[in-house]
Design goal:
The complex is a heterodimer of chains A (247) and B (318). Chain A is of the alpha/beta class and 247 residues long. Helices cover 36% and strands 26% of the residues of chain A. Chain A is built from nine helices and ten strands. A six-stranded mixed β-sheet of chain A has the order 6-7-8-3-9-10, with helices on both faces. Chain A has a four-stranded antiparallel β-sheet with strand order 2-1-4-5, covered by helices on one side. In chain A, α6 (179-195) links the parallel β7 and β8. The two termini of chain A are 33 Å apart. By secondary structure, chain B is an all-alpha fold. The longest helix of chain B is centred in the middle third of the chain and has 28 residues, at 154-181. Classes of the chains: A alpha/beta (247), B mainly alpha (318). The structure holds adenosine-5'-diphosphate (ADP) and magnesium ion.
Amino acid sequence: MASVLLSAKGIKIRFGGVVAADGIDLDVLEGENLAIIGPNGAGKTTFLNISTGYLRPQAGSISFLGQEITAQLPRTITKLGIARAFQIPQLFLDQTVMENMLIAAASRLGSPSGFTALSALPELPEMERLLDLVGVKSYASRKARELPEGQRKLVDIALALALKPRLLLMDEPTSGVASAEKLEIMDILTSALAKEKVTSVFVEHDMDMVERYAHRVAVWNVGKIQKVGTPAEVLADPKVREQVIGI
Amino acid sequence: MSGRIKPVTAVAIIFFLVSAVAPLFVSSWATLFALILAKGIVVLGIILLLQAGQVSFGHAMFFATGAYTAAFWGKYVGGGDIVLFIALGGITSAVFGLIVGLFVVRYREIFFGMLNLAFSMVLWSLLEKMFHYTNGADGIRVPRPALLGLSFTPETFQYVILYVSLLAAVVAFYGVQRYLESPLGHMLRAIKSNETRLEYLGTSARRVLLIGYMISAFLGGIGGALVAIIQQIATPEFGFWTKSGEFVFIAILGGSAHAFGAFAGAAMFECVRFYAAAHLADTWQLILGVVLIVIILYAPNGLIGLRQRYGQAKQGGH
Ligand SMILES: Nc1ncnc2c1ncn2[C@@H]1O[C@H](COP(=O)(O)OP(=O)(O)O)[C@@H](O)[C@H]1O
Ligand SMILES: [Mg+2]
């Protein structure tokens, strides 16, 4: 069996009266694509926020590669090899798409220069390749602000990839992307992840996408994990069908 | 695009050339241009912080640190050299910037601005109250220093300090432009647009801002040392909040989108003061106030933004 990459144990958090995580236990296995599904407000994004140190859980712990990372800073966790793509894209809007990518590359390399030009970084061709991979290379010299929402999401994913992570957390990666392009993008993305041996966790609403690309599925419901299994097992569960998928 | 000289760079080159040549014809311009260049160096520091979306209302503390470094040297060590004053002023300020920076880079926007103001007021009070060491409000005279061991008559000296200021300004201008185009400079700008993403790339936004802050303090110190030499005095006024306001004013006037805004703003500011003060006593603030209102209303990108605005209007916009 594959080894455990990320392990969450007994994660709890509540915001006032809202329970967003109520004892979450989940192992992410090396090499898999794990889908997280569940209704809006179930606590999916909150789980990603806790896993990356943006929020501190009120109880429980998270470890990555056997190392305790609970409530570490996002940048510390990033350096350990967890990258994140956001539900709402987080870009440097006043800079070009390529500059965004190069800032990511410079961050990964560490000790950024204060004198040689950003555009002179030797990572430039690699960043071009990543932009090409997610299909936004033609926007490279445009300001991020000028991009439509769907393309911004793709740049956001490319930024995460630029960090060469071991684990990639993606929050609804293809929401906002035209449905005709969704499949193509996920095809390219999942094969790239497989090739570079990146494990992924992605929040997704579209059950077709889940069936196609996830090795396992975790079903979230009101701060709890209702079920974990292969897409077929999860889809066969009448309770999941009724409460989460709505069929 | 690359390889061609950008219009703003061309204007900058022309400006530096005029600063070098014009005072040869009108001797009173030597000091005027030296002041413009020295203040422009300080304002470069303000523009750096503006890239990160932060406005310091206490930046004069670094200006005063540079000035008093030169003054204290003259008072307690004696003699002194322009190069030494500039180097020491810059370094002392950068160290002071590191100390203050460790506190202020934790805050953003109004809190950042006000905390800077608070630190600068502490320094100002110390300069005023520690009369025994600082001569209080009277300040400390800065005797004319030598340059690399050579002494000059007052007539020659005004040109010496002009060309030293010009050299310092050109180097600072070039360095700041390189910095803003570098990975660190781009990270500084990233603080303005998305600090969360920067942290999620593995970079400490505070550390990036601290480096920018120290560079900005360094520039403030150099400018302060130069102005103390030009005006032959350092007073607590150098660190007062109105001085900080003046630097921010000049940055907005000139435009913060490009390093040259610092010099464009300083030139406008000092020229209005120089001529209005001579012809219409006490009205120069009024004139500058009106100019600033016009700038904010009609050219929010400052003087250097005017060209783009005009250029766009001709092409019917983008
Ligand atoms: N930082 C926060 N402060 C207060 N409430 C929050 C915060 N983050 C999430 N919540 C609440 O927690 C619940 C779960 O949110 P979220 O994790 O974003 O759900 P999902 O991503 O599954 O749609 C929601 O009710 C949301 O309003
Ligand atoms: Mg969500």
